[in-house]
Amino acid sequence: MNRLANSTSPYLLQHANNPVNWYPWGKEALDKAKAENKLILVSIGYSACHWCHVMEHESFEDEAVAAVMNEYFVCIKVDREERPDVDQIYMSAVQLMSGRGGWPLNCICLPDQRPIYGGTYFRKNDWTSLLFNLADFYKQKPEEAEDYAVRLTEGIQKYESIEFVVAQADHTKDDLQTIVTNWKRYFDKREGGSGNAPKFPMPNNWQALMRYAYLMKDEEVAEQVKLTLHKMAFGGIYDHVGGGFARYSVDGLWHVPHFEKMLYDNAQLISLYAEAYTWQPDELYKQIVDEIITFSTRELISPEYGFYSALDADSEGKEGKFYIFTKGEIAEILGDDTELFCIYYNITEEGNWEEEESNVLFRKDSDEALAEKLGLAVDELLVKINASKQKVFEARAQRVRPGLDNKILASWNGLMLKGLADAYRAFDKPAYLELALNNAGFVLDQLLGQNGRLSRVYSATSSQDSPVAFLDDYANIIDGLIALYEVTFNEHWLLEARKLANTALLHYYDETKGIFFFTADDDEQLIARKSEIMDGVIPASNSVMARVLKKLGLLFDNEEYTEVSAQLLRNVMPQLSKYGSAYSNWVMLLLDEVFGVNEIAITGSNAEAFRKEMENNYIPNKIMLGGNTGSLPLLQDKFGTSTQIFICKDKTCGLPAHNPADALNEVEARFYN
């Protein structure tokens, strides 16, 4: 066994028996490279990554390939989910060199960590040849290698950086229209989503566009959002038997998934479909939310109420084996009910994906349309399908399960906490709130040290005295805690969010650049200190911080928070019109700037009932606060003998409304006319 044997990361442990003399990222490996003047080979991936498994099997388990790696390189394995700071640097390098990135990510570096070459997946022969060539290049032409390293490191330091913008600009609807007009060009108006293949769910994109469609009264965008939500929910990217979404579909039809299931996707998709239900109620959205939460609590939750990171794409060494069925297998399970189930989920004798006779389950028709075709009542159809689905689920549960990545990450648990709060907000289901409260308790009890600093990775055995966490951990936990406050009016959660925001400002914010760094000022210093600005499958940590500081600034009447948020948006504004989908979370902040934020304060003994009634109405640009008592500035002098609702904006509140209907009329009158 190599030096990965003592790791806690499931991904590193997968490589502990490789003949490669792997080291984890750390002082021992980095010092060895300098002492022996050896190139560093940094190989980065994650446990649910299919092509990471393929490259391991083809190359890293091969004795001959390992001999080359061990002879000429100090080999370091990195779990990108535990060390996104390291991944961020070498991903930037590979994108600068090749214009593309992905995992596995393999970078060759000088002994001082500066990269000179990199790429993603390599076939065995190509990999071996590359390693010989690079080792020889470094030996024969060290000056040329140094020149490469200098230029590439300069590029990494500048990559995804922005200028400090001093000028105060008035943000307008025209700014929003320009951004979305360019964005529309990428819409797939037939199959939903953007572009062709592969297709990622990108929940933050569709949440931003949903809000834009509502506030700007853009029916074209509204239709694209609804099309996308339905196509994703009907597609093979969704697990119709067990719930939950895969990371992406390899085709443009949402049909064939890359089967790994990630916590971060499913957490955000809970928020997306829950908000969509409030926007335009659809029973499909409600079903999807409930099934994702059921899946997550069945397969991704720890006894302590932390959520694990992912399920693998592979089982028994084969991608998707757990999820696919032949028609014959379905017939063995369902007998006389086989045909109806196969029609519903498009299962055929020939099969509907790359492996002969195997099927990925997906839907084409709505329940109403299919029931009419088959001459059944909708209720009758659903009773039969749900009974069959339960039988298939029970049969599938006997199979060898995909591997579980049981890391518990602060950032992704923040996303899930927010998802659960959003689900409770939309559906008023006590079980969702109970889960959210338990998860929030876990985060604050187990991931927050006595010094007020977060740990990114939960460990039942390690000390919290010197935790390592990144900006996304703070940003997403703060966002989740604010969401939990808004559905409970318990100020404990909000006060904890404020403490974390102050810690983030102290250790991550650079006033001279008006941007947050991804790493803390007292973290390990790498070859570059980067900022995360562009939104991807997870919103950028800077955009999340900008949005939560805007909320906290309003809730606590704190000008510092408000100004930092405004400065971040000023800096990023020049980028937004170029490629809206890469700045979708910033677009939501811009929507709040243009339309203002409804500060809805509900005070009195009936505050919870009024809150629930207000939540049944779609008001995307709002914050909710209140309760029987409260210390927040906006609540002062607002407690009377009856329950009241105050609609406020820009430090000005209207007269109190005594029922939700009157309050909603005031929202309409003040903000949307």
Decide which structural class fits the backbone: alpha+beta
Q: Return the CATH class of the largest domain.
A: Mainly Alpha
**Which outline best applies?**
globular
CATH topology of the largest domain: Glycosyltransferase
As for the number of domains, it is 4
Number of helices: 25
Beta-strand residue fraction: 5-15%
Distance between the termini: 68 Å
- Strands of the widest sheet, in order across it, are 1-3-2-4-5
Keywords:
single chain; 673 residues; alpha+beta; Glutaredoxin; Glycosyltransferase; 4 domains; globular
Task: Describe what you observe in this structure.
InterPro entries: 6-hairpin_glycosidase_sf (IPR008928), Ssp411 (IPR024705), Ssp411-like_TRX (IPR004879), Thioredoxin-like_sf (IPR036249). This is Thioredoxin domain-containing protein. The protein is α+β, with helices and mostly antiparallel strands. It has 4 domains: 155 residues, 3-Layer(aba) Sandwich (Glutaredoxin), CATH 3.40.30; 248 residues, Glycosyltransferase, CATH 1.50.10; 75 residues, no CATH class; 75 residues. 51% of the residues lie in helices and 10% in strands. It contains 25 helices and 20 strands. The strands form 7 sheets. It has a 5-stranded mixed β-sheet with strand order 1-3-2-4-5. A 4-stranded mixed β-sheet has the order 18-17-19-20, with helices on both faces. Strand 6 and strand 7 form a beta hairpin. The mean pLDDT is 95.
